[in-house]
Amino acid sequence: MSSLSRRRLFTAAAGVAVAAAAPRMVFAQAMAPAGAFKLPALAYPYNALEPHIDAKTMEIHNTRHHQAFVTNLNNFAKDNPQIAEKPIADVLANLSALPDTIRTGVRNSMGGHANHTMFWEIMGPNGGKAGGEVLAAIDRDLGGMEKMTNDFNAAGGRVFGSGWVFVNVAKDGKLSMETRPNQDNPMMDGKLALFGNDVWEHAYYLNYQNRRPDYLKAWWNTVNWTKISERYAAAKAGKLAV
Amino acid sequence: MTFTLPALPYAYDALAPHMSKETLEFHHDKHHQAYVTNGNNLLKGSEFEGKSLEEIVKGSFGKNAPLFNNAGQHYNHLHFWNWMKPNGGGDKLPGKLAKQIDSDLGGLEKFKTDFAAAGVGQFGSGWAWLSVKNGKLEISKTANGESPLVHGATPILGVDVWEHSYYIDYRNRRPDYLKAFVDHLVNWEYVESLYSKVA
Fold first, then answer.
1. Each residue of B81-123: pLDDT tens digit?
2. Minimal Cα–Cα distance from A125 to chain B, Å?
3. Lowest mean pLDDT segment, chosen from A31-35, A78-82, A202-206
4. Considering the domain A53-242 in this protein, what is its CATH number?
5. How far is it, in rounded angstroms, from Cα A119 to Cα A196?
6. Is B26's Cβ below 8 Å from some Cβ in A?
7. Domain ranges of chain A
8. Do residue B124 and residue A202 have CB atoms under 8 angstroms apart?
9. Which end of chain A is more exposed for a tag (fewer CB within 10 A), N or C?
10. Which of B21, B69, B171 has the CB atom closest to A160's CB atom?
11. Residue B114 contacts by C-beta under 8 Å, 6 or more apart in sequence?
């Protein structure tokens, strides 16, 4: 048996253990140093997005990669409590105001924290279809669902190295699409992500390896349009935090 | 010149357990192959057609991002396969290089620590390097397909810290991958051969 098929078996076994998966996340939170920044709990188990995103990828992505950003932020906040006292949008929009010693670290870790907090929120099982105001905005601003999806996948495919592809929402509800490298977030330029997809290799490598286009295509099956509609309404009301 | 994918200088399973057969299959046959294929497509009809790989890498940097990304990664990977060997690493370095590491970088142990730290500190995809600039050794890190070549230096050792290089074997544990690379994989004879050309 190849190591690939062994891993798939392991992944499948991990997927069955739903009850065991959820407490692991709580454990990871409990292990984090005390601090203002916290790893948000997922609203669904790690295997809920299979077969599009496997349980092992979700677990490592959440409890290792995202947790590392949270841990780093709490460490920075020990000597620089101001980064925890202001809203994330304010800190990210004013990175130049931070001391040189922490600016890049906060950019990477707070960007990563914001990106992943949004990412977990806009995915889920049984995410439904786009409708209502969001669909109308996609039709109006991004040429309709099919064109938006194709453009989004193409943009994600063109990111060379690690990064994200976003659909942003302005205060008036207007949508726009962009990509950013590494863990940069639209808030760094005073914008706000409605939704986005992670194209760092860690987001898909166990399941898709070099086949990023396949991941980008499959990812739409995990999108929670109900949540995106809520975020759209919140953004227009000036109440969308990250 | 057109780019071609060379065969690995060892069997796919030769670097296990530090780098698995599966990782090398994807990394060499898929990732490196894609840089070769895309690079050749982008080279066609460009001002860089007919130039050497190093000329293409240096000339396209900051001018033609898609071509640079692919040509740069082709250059990096051509060397990367040779920067590793089965039962590599260790502390027996060719004399001249060992002396230079002592005088420029504070000794082999410090080099190993600092080189691995450069790799850990590269946020996102990229590389960590040992290169020669104006006769001196230096450690650096670069993003994505960049290398010291475009910063006036000659790379003599590099380690790929794109997640595709270690995710199957080490998942998020990049420090463990870098430790295995310096302790068990580095082909110091190849590093010395590059060093002797510029020193």
1. 999 999 999 998 988 999 999 999 999 999 999 999 999 999 9
2. 25
3. A31-35
4. 3.55.40.20
5. 7
6. yes
7. 53-242
8. no
9. N
10. B69
11. B105, B106, B139
